[in-house]
Amino acid sequence: MKKNKSIDWKNYDPNDFYDELIAAKGKPRRAATAITDYLGNLDSEEIQARQQAAELAILETGISFTIYSEGENIDRAWPFDIIPRVISLREWETIEQGLAQRLTALNMFINDIYNDQNIVKDKVIPKYVFANSKNFREQCRGFTPPLGVWAHICGSDLVRDKDGKVYVLEDNLRVPSGVSYMLENRQLTKRVFPELFDNTSILPVDDYTNQLFDMLASISPRPQDHPKIAVLTPGIFNSAYFEHSFLAQRMGAELVEGADLVVGEDDCVYMRTVEGLERVDVIYRRIDDDFLDPEEFRADSTLGVPGLMRAWRNGKVGLANAPGAGVADDKVIYAFVPDMIRYYLDEEPIIPNVPTYMCVNKQDQEYVLEHLDELVVKPANESGGYGMLVGPHSTKKQRAEFARLIKKNPRNYIAQPTLSLSVAPTLCDEGLAPRHLDLRPFVLQGVRTYVTAGGLTRVAMRKGSLVVNSSQGGGSKDTWIVDEEN
To answer: Is the full-model pTM beyond 0.70?
Structure first.
């Protein structure tokens, strides 16, 4: 009996957007032919059964995230779409080089800003840009961490525009999250489409936690010994707690809260155990600077460890990411990254920025205020899609409020054109439909630089929406880097 095909790619229409899988109606991109051919031979019941199998596996394994709503913490199952996003290896190799280039320059910038500030003296970046940054830490002045690396883990968000060009939308250098979901998405997809992994050259991502451990070990103050590594979490009510416990378990590291650690008179950090104090060499901290050490930052913090900054500055413990790295995790600083790359590396940026208007500049501010209905306006230091205005989807009242905010604190706002974000086929209530997405690859920097093969693809599940954050209704997909030559 002949099966009724669920998907006819000739009927799938991405409209005017760049589609990650389909080049034109009925014509898949070369790297995506394996998945499109496979899906085209499944009937609707088989596809639905596989989506349900993935959702059941998510519930069984407890893959979740936390959202904050009306004063409550609500755990939600991780939203996942079984149709992967596919990128060719040839294209990815260029992106990989661009991400490594970018993080190298960002780390050189952070080290320069806390020390000689040559980039300011040479008038490449004006001083007000970082002097007014809420993430600039005076406590880090005059210090250089091991290997000169401040941001050991970076999650840069990439988007593709209508013409197929890839841009960096923003850099996440404080406590970037999401990598555990990238790894879980791959495991889910292997369960759903096991045969495709036997017959398609899809680059693996499974080695990330080994690479993370090696990178953390490279900043240990006791390099000759097997280092004791701890993941410092704010606790079970944090939205990324699933990831904290996941990474600690995969690395064989200790999962600790601030109360589990103490700084001794010798400035070393110790973990409290039933057998007494045990020295900790490296802390992968998932706590913001403000809460890290009540002796140096917020005195009322119960999440951090008193004396931790002293231990770090005296070279007795490695911290990743280093305190103060967030100075470069600022949407105003972001606008200068291409200049940093030229200044520190004497190279042209491999991946461009999205064109950016800085409201602190009078001319830019005037343009932004006149074109609020066309632009995306973002506060300098918010994350998760919060506090921003998407001009084409905004009301007159919202635009008036943002005009007031911009005039009141222009340093805190930037604006960018509303990009025609690329789309990919996604299973929705109405069947298969194009949905907008972005990509967060993860870059590690220690003795060497490592870039994940792909990253976390986040997808806006609502029709027409450009907001991909899971906290605001977005979902995710596995990301396949496919070697077309094999």
So the answer is: yes
